Amino acid sequence: RQSLIIDCDPGVDDAVGLMLAFGSPELELLAITAVGGNVPVEKTARNARMLRQIAGREDVPVFMGAARPLRREPAGAGEFHGAEGLGDLTPFEPEAPCAEGHAADAIVALVMARPERSVALAVMGPLTNVALALRREPGLAERLGPVAVMGGARAEGGNITASAEFNIWADPEAAAEVLASGCDVVLFGLDATHQVRATEQRIAALEAIGTARADTSAAMMRFSQRIERKIVGWDAPPVHDPCPVAWLLKPGLFELAPCRIAVETESELTRGHTAVEFREAVAGRLPHRWATTADADGVFALIGEACA
Ligand code: BDR
Ligand code: CA
C-alpha cells in the first residue's frame, strides 16, 4: 500500500480528488493538510472535514496550514468554486475537529517517522504548506517519496492569467522552493489536466452510481460545468486535482517527460509561469517530471470505482 498525504484547498476538483483517495484501499491515507487557496484556509480545512465525513473517513486526520502565501497577498478562486469552496454544497459544521498542530509540522512528523521515500505527497493547492515543511526540516526532501503536484502551465497556456496556472501563480515563491528542494517533483499541469474533462456522459455515469461519494463528486462537476460554460465557454470542465492521486494509483495513465522546471517570480505579467526545459544538454540534469498526456477514460474509471 502506498502511504500518502494530501495537501489541498477544497475546491470542487480537490473534492473529487479526495473522494478518489478515500475510496481507494490501495492508498494508506495518513493525513489531509489544508492550505489557503481557492478560499481561505478556515474554509478549506472545514471543507476537507465535511468531505471526509460524507465519505465516512473520519479516521483520516485533517490539519490546518498556511493562511497566506509566503510573500504574496492571498488571492482566491471563488468564482470557480463558489464562495464557500464546494460549489452548491451547503456548508455544515462537521462533527470532528481539525487535528492539533500546523499542517507543515504534521507533514514533517509523519514523513520523518516512516521509512525513507515511503510517503508520497499529492498536492492540489498552492505549495505554501509544502515549502514551509521543507524549511522546517531540511532532511525532509531526502526522506519524501514522490511529490505529485497539480500545477503549472506551458503549451496549453494559463487559466488564471494567460501565462500561469492558479496553484503556481497563487504562491510562486513556494513552488520555486519546492522545485529547488531536491524532492522528486512530478507536475500535472494544464497540458495534462485539460485532457481530463467531465463530459455529460461521464457525469451521468457517476450520478447513476448512487452513493454519497459519487453524488458529491458529480455535484462538484455539475457546478464546474455551469461555471466553465459561463466563464470560459467550455461544455466539459477539466477535473484537475484527481490527476496526481490517479497517477499514484495507476502510473500508466499518464505520460511523463523528464525535465527541469523553473517558476517565474519576478515579472507581474508572467508571474507563476512554469518554464519547462526538456533538453538535458541545456539543463545539465533533469530532476523533475512533467505530465504530457492523460488517459481521461482511465482516470474516470478510477473515480467511478472509488465512488461505488
Ligand atoms: C487548480 O486551481 C484550483 O482552482 C483548482 O482546485 C486546481 O487545484 C487548477 O488550476
Ligand atoms: Ca485545488
Automatic annotation (TrEMBL):
Molecular function (Gene Ontology), one example: purine nucleosidase activity
Keyword Hydrolase carried by entry: yes
One GO CC term, this protein: cytosol
EC number(s) recorded for this UniProt protein: 3.2.2.1
One Gene Ontology term from the biological process aspect of the record: purine nucleoside catabolic process
Enzyme class: hydrolase
Domain named Inosine/uridine-preferring nucleoside hydrolase: residues: 4-300
Keyword Oxidoreductase: no
Keywords: Glycosidase, Hydrolase
Pfam families: IU_nuc_hydro (PF01156)
The protein, known as: Purine nucleosidase
Native source organism of the sequence: Brevundimonas basaltis
